Amino acid sequence: MVAGRREEILEAAVEVFAERGFRGTSIDAVAERAGLTRQGVLHYFPSKKRLLIEVLNFRERLNREHLVERGAGEDWAGDFAEAVAFEQLHPSFAQVHSVVVAEAVTGQEPAQAYVRERSAAIQEHLAEHLTERYGERLPSGLSARTGAAAVFALVEGVHQLWLVDRDAGRYPEVVREAMAVLLGESPAPGTPEARPACEDCPACVVPQESAAPPVPAVNG
Which terminus of the chain is more solvent-facing, meaning fewer CB atoms within 10 Å of its CB: N or C? Predict the structure, then answer.
């Protein structure tokens, strides 16, 4: 019951943060949307800042769970495309992330710290996974670190484009095709083939949470 009530509050908070941003959101507004009292929300989330962080973590957890159900870990291009498609089915998630990024750009906290730390962490994890699977150079010729930055920017940018052009349903396929070239699933002439998946590499073993590369659920 506790888990169910927490998720009800988080779902309400996603909608309110997406509509109003961090500064424009109040605990009272979230409580009203969730059909609870202010104290009912504070019982689970003791501050607005804590609530925002939990909302962002909730969004990424749902995306990870979706990818695990899909059997993520082998078809990375497909995994990233699926993550983008999942966000498009849940526009409030994409919108709340976009609002947080916008607030980070103007130096507002806690958005700025969250976006900076998340960006660095995701790119670091992506670089590690790419290095484990391909070595220091990707089939495209990019270094693993540059490739990680390119992947992150691709997914984040696609989310932003979709939010202002929701009639365009092509973005998951854009991500799939770009990732396929980057990762060598459709290698350009003269580029090295991707290394085969191994049984021991964390990036190739599906059941663990870390099996698939960290997808920026982001809007990312």
Answer: N
Cα separation of 147 and 182, whole Å? Answer: 8
pLDDT beyond 50 at 214:
yes
- Distance between CA 103 and CA 101 in Å, rounded? 5
Task: Calculate Rg over the CA atoms of the chain.
Answer: 18
Residue 199 φ then ψ, to 5° = -80, -25
With contact defined as beta carbons under 8 Å apart, do 219 and 157 qualify? Answer: no
* Nearest residue to 66 (alpha-carbon basis) of 97, 92, 44, 88: 88
CA distance 30 to 45: 11
pLDDT of residue 199: 39
The answer to whether the CB of 83 falls within 8 A of the CB of 75 is: no
- Of 207, 211, 40, 198, the closest CA to residue 133 belongs to 198
Helices (H), 35-110: 38-44, 48-70, 76-89, 91-105
**What are the tokens at 55?**
């909302």
pLDDT at 58: 86
Which residues have CB under 8 Å from 15's CB, separation 6+? 33, 92
Query: Percent of the chain beyond pLDDT 70?
Result: 79
**Do 216 and 156 touch, CB atoms closer than 8 A?**
yes
Residue 65 and residue 195: Cα distance in Å, rounded?
A: 27
